[in-house]
Please model this.
Amino acid sequence: MEFDEIVVKDTPGLCRCCLSEGCYKDLSTEYPWMDDTEIYADMLLECFDVSISQHIEGPNGPNRLICEVCITRLRDACNFKKQVLDSEKKFIDMVGRGAFKTKVLLYPEQMKSESQEVAADEAEIEYLDEDVDYDDIPLNELATPSVSEDITVATLPVAKRGRPKKTMKNEKKKIDVKLKTKSKGAKLSTVEDKYKKTEMVRKLLLKRRNVEYVLQYSNVTPFTWYKGRYRCFYCSEPIKDPDVLREHTAKVHQFANLELVVYDRTKNNRNRDAAVKIDVTDICCKLCNKNISSLEQLINHLIIAHDAEYDVSVPNCLLPFKLDKDQPTCPVCNIKFVFFEYLLRHANKHHLAHDYICDVCGTSFQGENHLKMHNRYYHREGGYTCDQCGINLSTLSKKMLHEKNVHMINLSTCPHCPETFKSPYFKKLHLANVHGVEELKIKCPYCPKVFPQDSIMSRHMRRVHLREKNVECQICGDRFFGPYDVKLHMLKHNGDKKFICSVCGKKFSKKSYLNSHMVIHTGQKKYVCTVCGKEFAHRPNLRIHFRTRHPQYEMEQAVSMADEVDESEFQIIFGSELDGVDRIE
Model:
């Protein structure tokens, strides 16, 4: 959405197409879209022959506004109208060229012997006259194949005047038997597919109705989560603070058209199976102002007290959270989390129905579309081939990571200069340090360090200042800062050392350990003390040198350099996992 093009008023505007309130675009203004421009008033007039009137007394004054949901539906309608008109034109052209003229198939009779072949053809088969006009034949005399039949196999009937005689009956019987046998299996599969599609549509409609009931009759706050930000369910505005999100939703979208918005948020294949995320902090019923403690009690209350037609048999309609700026909480099991990403993973895994299971790896999913995406990305036959070097990779994410790191393709670009970056962390660090973007300068409350990301600052605070180790190894009981540390620690228990030194043959569990080891053979020392100029092969040795030899000097330069690399590694490693949580929407 181009925010510079939105009409912002002191009070919310009113969409003239659905009467929902918000800050919307003007109908008579020209807006860029893709490689073209749009004027929504002209589109309405051209597509539906509808003209929106102007009234100075209305809430918009002389302006005529339209919301994003209605804009999307208007584009779809215009594209559909164009498609119908193009198809009609093509059809008329094809009819004029005679593309649908009836073709007649002649089946020669099986002959008893070679000596009788010519005689039999001449005596028993009457061929069609070339000047037969099939346009005059009644439609009921032409065989109409069923939907499931293969029309390329079926024989087309011919006019009585040119019909073959009785010698063709045996051949025709054989073809009819083959046709019936083939079409029987096709009919069964068609019926099954039709039933599955009807059932899927029915469940989707019930799911949308369930979501509308809860949003209409309670004060829960729906939201989405994308790229590390809470976003408004109605207008997709990114909001960091959950309190601001709740206030924004209650004030700006109080009279939103729920049916249109819920349809728009669940129409994509990826979002049909996903549950709508809602904040249930201080939840209450709008009809009777009764305070309710949980989403389950709210649904039961709406059904029993207010006769709401909520269908409890439809799973994965809503996913509740208690949003807090510092510690978001799972309302079902009351577990607190430092980051919402971890809470989202927990809720998706433990509080949603997973009825679809992958036959290859056993992973379970909420819906059929998620299972299909999983198979396409992780179990594609033949894997994924790099377009640059031809190497084969097992998953799509590995291919993309390979292209970024090895071939420098699809790198993030700085909006202010030509600099490119392999990870979002380095891009944000560049924007904060080089271009002085203030919102990326997040300060640690315990030390002068500055970070370009809230999650990295929180990680630094827990590791360096609070020393929180909340994750425990299930084998030996050692405690660690996070799940990734446990994953690295598990390499010791598994004994899997697949990185081998090409010089001495020593094995390592991590590639970084192998790279550090290779310094012994190369003699390269890239870490230099800024005070005395002494060189070191490894970063920790430089830090120890600063502490012991130069305690009077600030160690900020060396320490910050080490932390930056650690944080970047953290971002690169966890980046793909966090992105994966965002697509389930």
